[in-house]
Amino acid sequence: MSDLLQSAKTAVDLAKKAGAQDAWAAISRDRSVSLVYRDGKVEKVEESTSRGLGISLYVDGRYSSHSTTDLRPDRLAGFIKEAVALTRVLQPDPYRVIPDPALFKGRPTVDLERVDPSVAKLTREQREAWCAEMDAKAHSDSRVISAESNLFSGESQGAAASSNGFDGVWDGSYVGYACTATVREGEDKRPEGSAHAVGRFLTGLPEPAAIAALALQRAIDRLGSAKGPTVRTTMVVDPEAAVSLISRALSPLSAASIQQGRSYLAGKQGQKVFGDKLTITDDPLLPRGLSSRHFDGEGISAKRMPLIEAGVVRNYYVDTYYGKKLGWAPTTGSASNRVLGLGDKPLAALIADVQDGIYVTSWLGGNSDATTGDFSLGLRGHQIKGGKIGAPIGEMNVTGNLAALFAKLAVVGNDPYPFSSLRAPTLVFEDVQFSGT
Amino acid sequence: MQQTLSRRSFAAISTLGLGLPGLLGGCRGTTKAGSTTMIPGENAPLADHLGWFSVDKPTIARVMSELTARGADAADLYFQYSRDNSITMEDGIISRASSSIDQGVGLRVVVGDQTGYAFTEDLSLEAMLAAARTAAGIAHGGAAHAPVEFKQRSRPTNFYTLSQPWAEVQTVQKLPRIEHLAALARKGDPSIHKVTVSWADGEELVLIADMHGNIHTDIRPMTRLWCMLTAKKGEVTQSNSANLAGRHGFDWYTDDRLEFLAKEAVSRTMVLFDAKRPPAGEMPVVLAAGASGILLHEAIGHGMEADFNRKNTSIYASMIGKKVAPDFVTIVDDATQSGERGALNVDDEGNPVEKTVLVDHGVMASYLHDSISAKHYKVKATGSGRRESFRHSPMPRMRSTYMENGPHTREEIIASVKKGIIAETFTNGQVQIGAGDFTFYIKNGWLIEDGKITAPIKDINIIGNGPEALRNVTMVGNDCKLDFGGWTCGKDGQSVPVSQGLPTTLVSKMTVGGENV
């Protein structure tokens, strides 16, 4: 048994001894290293190994959850004892039960390829060399004032155990680079462009210099940015920007938001809410996926779950607690990887098809109301003129309702963004309200 | 109420995170053997504070010596213990509670503008020495002069004195307050369908040792009470929330405050049933007194953090001494507002705090400095070096940002607008430092037509450009107040609690998200 799993079991035992009927403990250890390089030299090096324990307690029909990084044995025992005592003064909650052990069954065994052993072996020299490559590339234009390059990586191990028979362990690695270039424009303006790549494995990532080149290009693309007109037109959303837009649209799929009356998707199961082109599956079993897993935080065995099929809402994220409140069987309480059904053209071809509209490259601020689906977002991007990417625009908003927007989803690209657990392709929406001049 | 995760975002936090620390128990708070809850009090001897972390002065000297063994212009050890508690009432039941303890030490070495950083939660000498060697890796010289003696430095004032530290307040004392607030909210309107109340309190003990032999300690309390509502009228559902937050104690939650909070949450929710989107495009925006300080935070505050200017990446990098706004505009960032989330007794580098004037009667006056930028610009640090926790190295951050009163009244400001909006409550904002483009999201507001408030509006984003928005401040009211709700500022992956305020202010033109039907 791993030392972490042993520690988790010990914590569960401490909780039982203190009077809890049930307990669930998870413990993790993470190492992270980050090197930041700016304008020809190392600016910051951070390195650490961190660990912590989380524990959920079920005491006389009452519930609480706790976490600590102070794992000295006497302090930990005192902490758990106090936590159990605290739980006793809360009110009994008939819906709160430890996850059903039946949900632990059928745990998949497929190799998720979560760990790249070469990540832990990266040397300081290698990290610095890659940052220097990015820095040189990012400075390859005389308009650049400053460039920051970052190489980050980490490895983690974890284990969880429960009083009703769950135990599980996991591990993972990640590595990525990021680059931001700032260019001068006129007297005071200093537009910037950023790019990054991240994955569980080193192989498959683009060359560091390619990321820096993209950051530089994005900064240069901002030069001369101006406010566009207030208009209703077609919106093409870049895959990278589509990630957060889709995530916003899907966040009210949780049983908690539905039970609390804070979801515009409440009561829509089996109904067509979005356009035909929208199909999204939650897939925890993708090899090397950033959110791949064999079980979720409640120990529920992982399986693929359709969320949206051709615009129809198929499943919600249902955890044990809110599932019981709603009278629904648990599915999984949290998202893993989200994969979209793809079209057959990439961004450039879709822009050519659109002829006229606005191409959104990134969002700036904004928010949405999960209860009504109303949203309003700041944006940056370009005009689309005659099927080509035109002048840069900024200082504009797009405003509407998420259900109405995705009902007008006209085309989906074939170019999913690879550096997120939500693999969004280019999206094309018709008749979208923009605010500008 | 979503938290934006992108860099330099700014969000009203919707969860209970980030609270920390608690305060002064006078002489009551010495460490009790075997207790995990009672941190040493404000006036406890330094030995008690050191003892809490199981360290002593010779240990600190030993670790500091290792940390500076390859040279250092500056170096510090940042010990932190924080304990947070939260309680939630939902569907009529006080159904869950949580607590968390976070403890560790961050070790930093600065050489010029280069930083080496490491932290450990394991406070054994062996683990701290290993972390010190890692952080020291940034340096390549001979050993710096490390202090042999460490001495505690006093500070003049306490900006967050509590009559009772949070660790002494029992959970059972909090429950009736939570139930009372929920009951007040529920009877606020017959359409109220769901009431959620979230209570959070915490305290934090910080001990900073620097390479000059100084030790600073601070005990920082924090609390927040949220009231979240869902209301139903026929087929239409609306939800909204309000919260109270600050570095206060249990007795701050008076009946009056709970009534005020319930009323705010109810009115913010019920008005949504009648609220519409304003027309889209450019128009005058009246920023209501209070939370509208988010404009300052995004439009100018971040751009005045000296690290961005030292790196030459801020739009304000060459504007010190320049006229940027009308004479009646004075903007400050102030650590000395008692009880505010942005209040500090000492910053996270051990520097004394102050009220820093960013814009003095329309002229750009000072950046916000940490030690690194102060040295670069050869000025005194402004006590703005802050960090999320011992896991992070400090950088220049805002504290309580607000505009001083101006010459106008709220009434004359509204009367001056032919067609525009009033922005009243907000969820989040963001800025692009170099381009100067900033945004903030309005949850509640009002339409102004011919100088009169005519209808409620909701859910729109505002976008503008920092220097342009400052130039376009055409009227400033005499009713400055700080927002009562809690704000958390995010920058480069670090979140810190802040405050913001504004008198009623007119910006003559910004781009308003809206719908032209």
TrEMBL record, chain A:
Domain Metalloprotease TldD/E C-terminal residues, every copy: 232-436
Boundaries of every Metalloprotease TldD/E central domain copy: 121-223
Residue spans crossing the bilayer: none
SUPFAM superfamilies: Putative modulator of DNA gyrase, PmbA/TldD
Entry-linked InterPro entries: Metalloprtase-TldD/E_C, Metalloprtase-TldD/E_cen_dom, Metalloprtase-TldD/E_N, PmbA, TldD/PmbA_N, TldD/PmbA_sf
Domain annotation Metalloprotease TldD/E N-terminal: ranges: 27-86
Family: Belongs to the peptidase U62 family.
Name of the featured protein: TldD/PmbA family protein
Species assigned in the record: Nannocystis punicea
Lineage of origin: Bacteria, Pseudomonadati, Myxococcota, Polyangia, Nannocystales
